Amino acid sequence: MIQIKLISNLIFLLLGSLSFVIGVLGIVLPLLPGVPFLILSALCFAKSSKRLDRKFRRTRLYKKYVRAFLYNKGLTRKEKIRINLIADFFIIMSIIYVDILWVKLVLILLALYKHYYFIVRIKTI
């Protein structure tokens, strides 16, 4: 039982660290959305270690990006647009390169749902 807990903590730690690195890159690079990855890091760090969770919550990245989203339950218009444009680019590229009709239809439905979710469900702050 202790080994399972140790392995799950290690997996959450590795996943949190990886998403943290991607989140930081997303803050710096305009091509990558950073906030979703930082939120994932916060979740993983909370599951892996209380000490690491407290340490992450004291960082400027957490206070500026994650706390703003979690407490305000929304994203800025700029962040919403950036995330949607990047996701749309990859969805469109997938639609162009895939030759299977039902996969194209699923991708189109996914894109439409993504826009609905970002416009209607996520508050703009």
Characterise the protein shown here.
By secondary structure, this protein is mainly alpha-helical. It folds into 2 domains: 2-72; 77-124. It has helices at residues 2-28, 35-48, 50-57, 60-72, 77-97, 101-121, and strands at 74-75, 123-124. The protein has a two-stranded parallel sheet. Helix 2 (35-48) packs across helix 4 (60-72) and helix 5 (77-97) runs antiparallel to helix 6. The termini are far apart. The model has no long low-confidence stretch (mean pLDDT 84).
The tally of beta strands, per DSSP, is 2
* Domain count: 2
How is the biggest beta sheet arranged? 2 strands, parallel
- The gross shape turns out to be globular
Sequence of strands across the biggest β-sheet? 1-2
Quick structural overview:
83% of the residues lie in helices and 3% in strands. The protein has 125 residues and is mainly α.
Task: Write the SSE topology.
Elements lengths: L1 H27 L6 H14 L1 H8 L2 H13 L1 E2 L1 H21 L3 H21 L1 E2 L1
Helix pairs in contact: 1-2, 2-3, 2-4, 5-6
Descriptive labels:
single chain, 125 residues, mainly alpha, 2 domains, two-stranded parallel ribbon, 6 helices, globular
